[in-house]
Structures are given as structure tokens and as C-alpha cells.
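Task: sequence design from structure.
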């Protein structure tokens, strides 16, 4: 069955799903965020078939989420690093982890300086902390 493309959709959520909406892609991004860079590291860590991993890595490079760079150790192979666009997916990955935290999660976002755990929160324009139940999505044309 051929997957429907949302690349040209007017909704930004649909366009994002087009890039990272399958489980392998978002898990590759998660692994890149925790420091994995090499094909073998992704393949071993995820247990994904090589052909599927190759396809997802190509797509993530083509869409500007990852880039291929020479190996940090000076070897002949290439590694994958997150672009700025890819690093901007951190809140998405953290939000998914927070949502599923009731079942336990093996990764925790931490402040680089203090090493203490951090949590994503919503804040109103006046600075109040909001619960997700206090927030709704508004269509762009709603003003």
C-alpha cells in the first residue's frame, strides 16, 4: 500500500507528519538526540532492517533533518548529525516521552549546565503555567 504524501498540505502538522510521522523516523531522531551518529549505532539500537534504515536516513537527510558528515574519528565512513531543523524536533520527542511516561521512559531531558531534569510546559502570553487541558489549537485563519 502506497503512503499518502502530506508534503504540500496547508496544515503544518500534516507536513511534519510527512517528514517524521512513521515510527522509525522519529526513533532515529530520538537516537540522534541522545548522541548516536553511525549507521551501525542506529541499526543496533533500533533493531531495524538495514534497507528500512537506509530509506529513512535518506529521507531525513533529503528533508534537512539530518546531514551526512565525515566521521569524527577521521575514518572513511560518514556519520549522521542533526541539523538545526532536526534539533528543533527535541520538544516533539520530549513531549512524546512525557506523554508516555506513565509506562516508563529510558531517556530524560536534562539541563546541560546543571544536569537536572527538565520538563516541557505551556506558558500563556502573561507567563502563567498552563495545563494541556487549558490549551486548544486554533486554526491559522482564526486570528
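Answer:
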Amino acid at each position: 500500500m502506497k503512503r499518502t504524501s502530506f508534503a504540500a498540505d496547508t496544515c503544518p502538522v500534516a507536513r511534519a507528519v510527512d517528514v517524521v510521522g512513521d515510527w522509525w523516523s522519529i526513533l532515529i531522531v530520538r537516537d540522534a538526540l541522545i548522541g548516536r551518529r553511525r549507521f551501525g549505532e542506529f541499526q543496533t539500537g533500533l533493531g531495524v532492517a538495514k534497507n528500512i534504515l537506509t530509506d529513512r536516513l535518506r529521507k531525513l537527510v533529503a528533508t534537512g533533518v539530518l546531514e551526512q558528515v565525515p566521521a569524527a574519528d577521521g575514518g572513511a565512513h560518514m556519520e549522521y548529525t542533526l541539523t538545526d531543523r532536526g534539533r528543533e524536533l527535541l520538544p516533539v520527542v520530549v513531549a512524546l516521552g512525557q506523554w508516555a511516561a506513565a509506562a516508563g521512559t529510558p531517556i530524560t531531558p536534562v539541563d546541560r549546565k546543571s544536569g537536572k531534569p527538565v520538563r516541557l510546559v505551556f506558558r500563556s502570553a502573561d507567563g502563567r503555567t498552563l495545563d494541556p487541558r487549558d490549551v486548544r489549537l486554533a486554526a491559522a485563519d482564526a486570528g
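The chain is about 40% helix and 10% strand.
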